[in-house]
Amino acid sequence: MKRFIILFVVLCLPLALFAQQEGDAWLKDLDTTLGSRFAMEVEVNVADEPIMGYFMVDGDGYYISLGIMEVYSDGKVRYEINNERKEVTEDRVDLTSCDLLTNPTRAFDFLGDEFSSEVLSSSATEAVVRLIPSSEELGISAIEIHLVRKGAAVEPKSVVYDYDGESVVITTLLLDCGDRKLPKWDKNAYRAYDIVSFL
Question: Checking CA distances to 33, which of 2, 3, 94, 176 falls within 20 to 30 Å?
Answer without folding.
Answer: 94
